[in-house]
Amino acid sequence: MPLSEFRKKKLLFVFTTFFDVNDSGAIDKKDLDLAVQSICSSRGWASDTAKLEQTKATLLKIWEGLKQGADSDQDGQISREEWYMMWEDYAKNPDNPPEWQNVYMNFVFDLEDTSGDGSIDESEFCVVCRNHGVTDSEAREAFKKLQVGTEVTREKFLTLWRDYFTSDDANSPGNFIFGKTSF
To answer: What is the pTM of this model?
Structure first.
């Protein structure tokens, strides 16, 4: 079954917001390098910190996995169509994703868990969403729609993550993990 327009809109949001950082219409290694700079800048991490090096290493691992799993024409870029095809494959077996997708999911969780206490509260969620162009009011509304109470644990996040990338139900709680309330 081909991707619904609703799922394409959700996937495009992730593609344009978190991956195609230079707005070229495709994802390439330069985008991941720019993402490292953006993340570190928003966190106030200096260029010589362990956090920066860890972020670089993680995003490089994500890039290598993404390239291997989605760059079907092997041109060093991931087009929107290649992106859609990759997530369509994921939806067929979300319980057994490629390693890089687990790395990415855990990376996102750790970025949102700014306190490092193993859970994401509404305040942490709103701060990260704001860094990606989502208003505080929309982020607060999205957090409520996650239906997790006062915090998102890693276990809850995994369920919401799978839901985001596989569900066609516009009311599904996972649709709100990136702070958007409508697509």
So the answer is: 0.89
